[in-house]
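A favour, since you know our structure tokens better than I do. Go ahead and set the record down below.
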Amino acid sequence: MAFVAAKCTQCGGSLQVDASKDAGICPYCGTAYVTEKVIQNYNFQITNNIGTVIVENSEKNKIIEQCRAYLQMKQHHDAWLKATEGIQKYPNVLFFYVCLLYITMQDSDGSIHWGGLVTFESSLNTATQLMANADTWEKQVISDARKYIANDKLYVKYNGMTDYYMAVYRMNYADAHKRAKRKKLGKDIASSIKNVFFRVRSIFLFWLPLVIVVALCIAGNWADSKGYEADDLPSFVFYGGMALIVVSVILLIGNIGALIIFIREKRSQGENPVYVRIADYRQNKRIY
């Protein structure tokens, strides 16, 4: 008696049928079957599955080779897109996760975007779980990725304070943007005062004239206390002092105007990136 592997056309159950008989009954669903028909159904599914596996392997290898080619040409953006496509189609292939790790480290300037950090940590965790069959290069990249993420000198970069407040304090965009604008205004004013009033040129445009004005005021009070009248002072001293006072007032007004213009320019520049040490990022410290 020769038994042949077959598959039920009704429930898909695996059968061992007697090829010498014309028909039988499926033990799983009770459906009567024709022997020749269920054997043909089995052979068709096996052949179809093999074809599917061949196509999938061919496509997977094609994506892998494309990633490698882009990496060799240092076209990291294209390599990133291909690796991401590979992960979507073949989430259990280690190579694609290693590609993402490698690209992130190669493009790093000592900082990593906070959104990219989430992707990096996720890719590293998945790669660690899949590294049983890793080759030498993949093991090296995973090892470097662990060192990279553990480096306390690494900074986490946010596009601006709005992104920082949204990510760290879990604020919605509107609240985070309002808080960022208030914080930015304070920083802009402080920066503007520093740039306008504490530069070297301000010694001559503001501070020196101010000292002269104060000195003239003190001298005037001293002259009053001694009983001197304005007519008793030499004319060049009187008019020279008045001229210095006028010039000092003009320069003071000019510096205040420069301060206002500088603040407006700073505010129109938009948000600057915010950098946070990775240790502070992990501990979620409020350092801004």
Q: What stands out?
A: The CA atoms of residues 162 and 174 lie 9 Å apart.
